[in-house]
């Protein structure tokens, strides 16, 4: 008899470094906890607008803090996040809607590649300081993760169906109270559900699931 | 041979529920880690004004999230904070200046009472849901504390000495790029300062101190 697993839905946008941390954390814990992890690319711009919120970097001290906080998180989780040199310009001036649509398209056409594609986009912007905004960027991503049919994914990115998926993910996050990313919704087999903001609530997620929290689980790291 | 203790300055304002949780966490951890804990009441609106930051509860979704987050944090840390729906309206319109000056006066004239005094304000605001903003509230809390120097402390609330202590504490936090509370500053052996924001970074503090993270240490709650 198989027991019904708890569902963990991660709503994320590749503009958010903390979303990458939470993504890696949940992927590791999905190997040791009996949970079903569903990746839900959404659009942070729409969440911010809906909540009347602003990126943390609009407060300069938060920007300064974030760079040091990411270093500490790197050590803790065994990651290598590095802010691009023009981080403020990017975070406040550019839109990731195309990258997010690519993720939604991959989720539709080649779902087994969603994890890798998400990671590759994050690696580009938050590790190697490379672009995630132009068509050639997405071509490079498709090549790096070996998409079976890149043309299909690129065509799908412009499709109403994909725009709708992003909107639905935004809506679901907003309905559960989201004001930012990463946004994790945990639904127990009983149907009880809780939402968690950020990448520093794993111990509380563990508490809610009644599973042990064993720190960074570096032995389950994905290759960067 | 005893390990050299690391100085930890905890900058807090009793208007913040997360500051209370972190205050309790640090009191417990100061019994396990080789740290020299200094409690530094400061003035949160001063921080907001200088950094351009705003209270999280200005954003309705963050206010709703706070309610649930506090419940989960209560379970994890064994604390007893009670969110109430009037809190948002109250705190956005009112000021904790008298409370914070009272704590500064206690720090000056009866420092061994700073812990119970701080806790008394938090209990009143965050468990009993009573006002902590008026001079009358401060006098009532002071009376219940049975301070030896009560008259002197209450008489000094508008003195330059007390005002300057709050200003100095606030400026010191700003010098380390604080944008909110709880704000924890560790002074390392080489003199370098490491700052941590919020009540959810204790595992990263453990990493910086090269000490184990013991979780909520609920068993130590009674001793402090």
TrEMBL record, chain A:
One Gene Ontology term of the molecular function aspect: glutathione transferase activity
Protein name: Glutathione S-transferase kappa
Record-stated family: Belongs to the GST superfamily. Kappa family.
InterPro entries xrefs: DSBA-like_thioredoxin_dom, GST_Kappa/NadH, HCCAis_GSTk, Thioredoxin-like_sf
BP terms from Gene Ontology: glutathione metabolic process
Root EC class: transferase
Pfam families cross-referenced by the UniProt entry: DSBA
Gene Ontology CC: mitochondrion; peroxisome
EC number(s) per entry: 2.5.1.18
Active site: 16
PANTHER family given in the database record: GLUTATHIONE S-TRANSFERASE KAPPA, GLUTATHIONE S-TRANSFERASE KAPPA 1
The reaction(s) this protein catalyses: RX + glutathione = an S-substituted glutathione + a halide anion + H(+)
Endpoints of the signal sequence: none
Domain DSBA-like thioredoxin: residue ranges: 8-209
Automatic annotation (TrEMBL), chain B:
EC class name: transferase
Domain DSBA-like thioredoxin, residue spans: 8-209
BP-aspect Gene Ontology terms: glutathione metabolic process
TM regions (residue ranges): none
Residue positions of the active site: 16 (nucleophile)
Keyword hit for Transferase: yes
This protein's UniProt keywords: Transferase
GO terms for cellular component: mitochondrion; peroxisome
Record has Lipid metabolism as a keyword: no
Gene3D superfamilies, per the entry: Glutaredoxin
Protein name as annotated: Glutathione S-transferase kappa
Domain of life: Eukaryota
EC number(s) given by UniProt: 2.5.1.18
Catalytic activity annotation: RX + glutathione = an S-substituted glutathione + a halide anion + H(+)
Organism field: Mesorhabditis belari
GO molecular function: glutathione peroxidase activity; glutathione transferase activity
Family statement: Belongs to the GST superfamily. Kappa family.
